[in-house]
Every structure is written in C-alpha cells, then in structure tokens.
Write a structure and sequence with these properties.
heterodimer; A: about 180 residues; alpha+beta; Immunoglobulin-like; 2 domains; four-stranded antiparallel sheet; three-stranded antiparallel sheet; 4 helices; about 30% helix; about 25% strand; B: about 210 residues; mainly alpha
C-alpha cells in the first residue's frame, strides 16, 4: 500500500532537481528592496522624520475646525506682513521750531508742510504782538522738510527767512527746513 | 460629521492665501485726498516702494503736497514716481542702513545734481547722520553753486564738522551769493574759513533757537 521509502525519496529528489524558471527582473527588484531598507542600527532621528514625512496621511476636520484653522492662518499672515513691512521706527528726539511770517494784511495764515500732511486746517498760525506777525511752534524730528505758508485760503508764500525749495514739483513756492541731530537750518 | 480637509477648506484656504497679502496692503487712508484718477496709481507706486524697502512717507507727503496745491493728476503721479526713483538711487548709494530721513535728503541732493558717487563718499567720510550734509549739498547746488564745488566743500567739511557748522557754512555761502559773489568762489571761501574754525557767520543775525 505504501511506496517504499527509497522511491519516495527518489521522487522528491527528482522534483527538487527540476530547473526552476526565475523572472530575469527578480534580481533587480530584490536589490532595490534591499537598498531601500534602513541600515542595521542606523535608524536615526532624521531618517525616522523623513519616513514620517513621506508617509501619506489623511486628515479629517469638521467644517468648523477647518474654518478656524484657515482663520488662524490668515491672522498669522496678516501679522507677519505687518511686522515685515512696517518695522517700528526708531525713537528720535523732536525739537520745537518756531515759524514766523510777517503778513500785515492777512486774515488767516496756516503752516503746511511735510510734517502735517500738507493739511491747511491742522496748523493755523496765531497773531502775536504786532498785528503783522504770525507765529506757530511745531515739534520736528531730524529730517529735511518742505513747507509753505497758506494765506487767506488762497495764496501760497515761501518763508523769506529760509532756503527756497528748488526741487518743488508743483510750481507753488515752498521752503526747506533741515533739522539735524543737534541743530536747525 | 467630518469631511476631508481638501473637500471644504482647500478652496477657502487658497482664497485666503491670495487675499491676505492684498488685505495687508491696505490703501493709505490719507490718499483719499487725491482725486480718483491719481489715487490708484500713487497707491501702486507706494506699494512698489514698500516692496523695495524704500521709505513711503516721503512719497505720501509729496502726493499730499500736490493735492493741497491743486496739481493735476499727471503732475502728482510724475512727482511721486520721480521721488521714488531718487529715493531708490539714494538707497543704492548710501546703503541699506541709511535712515529714511537720510534717504530723503540724499534724494534731494541727487535731484539737485549731485552724483551717487558723491553720496557714497559722504557715507564713508562721516560716521554721524548725513541728513544735514546731504541737505546742505542739495541747497548749495540749488543756489547755483556748481555741483563739483559744492560736493568738494561738503566732503571736506563732513568728516569733522558738526551739523551746526555745516548749516552756518551754507548760510555764509548764501549770504555771499546774495551780496554778489560768484557761487563757486563763495563756496570755496566759506569752506576754507569753516575748515580753519573761523566764524563764517559773523555778520549774520544771532541764531534764534528753533528758527528755520
């Protein structure tokens, strides 16, 4: 009923001796898999982090959570933008400057310039002492300023006691005031 | 109920990424004083200047000056554009560490006719602020002093002179020019006198603190 042991062994041996057909690309695939494996004992933090970063993941969020994340990102962008484009100006000491104009016939005089946004309503001059004398005091930081007197809401006058702004672009007369670190001009 | 991130918030995120920088560059409210045609052009020039790390306040002031003086839109835009170019050239000559006030004064000097080389030489010659030397240079050239004479005089004084000395030097030159002296000769004489620590402003009125 049973095959003799020798026959069985012979049959198994014949089976094992048969040539095996191997895929010619097998070697390449095996070598690629081997090189992709981490070196023994070489699982560094960088390697772990790199593998973690490369592994695909799927995040799920509630719509509310998504909106909150987007809002937080937008606020961060706005803050970064503001910080990067508007650095806090250095604190510099300002000094008080008195501007004087002799204008006997003027009913009202304003001082306008780079220091008050050229706003004729912001720095009205005051009659002092004599009716002809108009004055105002303005604190100024170091810099070079263009300015002019605006008389009776219609007439521009340069300061006769200051250099004329020859780089004026608009034709109306202006003067120049230069404020240095320790003196005026 | 949860949804995938890309399903709902992806497009919204993209929209925010596009819109956030635009929202951050809010239009300068003071430009409302410009007419509707000039406002967007000037705002764009100011945004470009900000991107290039050029101080924007001088540009705003130049635009507002034009608006207050009733200048036409084209004149205002041209003035702001010209100043932006000059500020950029001044920054190139004076270096990125120059203060906004120095750049404004440098732009004025360049506009008057000084060269970028002169500005760079001033930067190397003087450790202190260059606001006054640059402004004096601009004022001298504007007064008719040949640019080479003005540059040589200011450079010779800038290394040691205080701001007040430079201002007195400029006053002396302007006074002599007003009295009829040739500008170049007046500059040379005042520079020599100033370098020798001579009171170059002996005939001028006493300086009243704070008077321009």
């Amino acid at each position: 009923m049973f095959e003799p042991m020798d026959d069985v062994i012979e049959r198994i041996a014949r089976h094992l001796r048969r040539p095996v057909r191997v895929d010619p690309a097998l070697d390449g695939r095996v070598m690629r898999e081997i090189s992709a494996l981490p070196a023994p004992g070489g699982a560094t933090m960088v390697g772990k982090a790199w593998r973690w970063l490369r592994r695909p993941r799927q995040f799920t969020l509630t719509p509310l959570g998504g909106l909150a994340a987007v809002a937080a990102l937008a606020v961060a962008l706005l803050l970064f933008r503001r910080d990067s484009t508007s650095p806090a100006p250095p604190q510099v000491a300002s000094r008080a400057f008195q501007f004087v104009l002799v204008a006997p016939r003027a009913a009202r005089v304003s001082l306008v310039g780079d220091f008050n946004d050229w706003d004729a309503t912001r720095t009205p001059m005051q009659r002092t002492g004599s009716d002809a004398l108009w004055t105002v005091v303005v604190p100024l930081e170091p810099g070079r300023y263009h300015y002019a007197f605006f008389v009776d809401g219609s007439r521009w006058l340069a300061d006769p006691s200051a250099p004329v702004a020859r780089d004026d672009d608009y034709g109306a007369p202006s003067s120049v005031l230069t404020v240095g670190g320790g003196g005026d001009s | 109920m949860k949804r995938a991130l890309t399903g709902v918030t992806g497009p919204l995120l993209a929209a925010i990424l596009v819109a956030a920088p635009a929202a951050a560059q809010q239009v300068e409210p003071r430009l409302e004083r410009l007419d509707a045609a000039a406002r967007p052009v000037v705002a764009a020039l100011i945004d470009s200047a900000r991107t290039a790390s050029i101080p924007t306040e001088p540009l705003v002031q130049r635009a507002l000056e034009g608006a207050t003086k009733g200048a036409p839109e084209g004149v205002i835009v041209a003035a702001v554009r010209r100043l932006a170019v000059d500020l950029g050239r001044a920054r190139d000559a004076l270096g990125s560490t120059a203060s906004p006030a120095e750049l404004s004064a440098g732009a004025a000097a360049l506009r008057a006719g000084a060269s970028q080389t002169t500005l760079a030489m001033l930067r190397h010659a003087r450790r202190e602020s260059l606001i006054v030397p640059l402004a004096v240079l601009a004022d001298l050239v504007s007064s008719g002093v040949p640019v080479d004479s003005a540059a040589a005089a200011v450079l010779s004084l800038a290394r040691r002179a205080r701001d007040a000395d430079l201002v007195e030097f400029r006053r002396a030159v302007e006074r002599d020019i007003a009295l009829g002296a040739p500008p170049a000769a007046a500059t040379a004489a005042a520079a020599t006198a100033s370098a020798q620590s001579v009171d170059v402003n002996a005939g001028a009125r006493p300086q009243r603190p704070g008077r321009p």
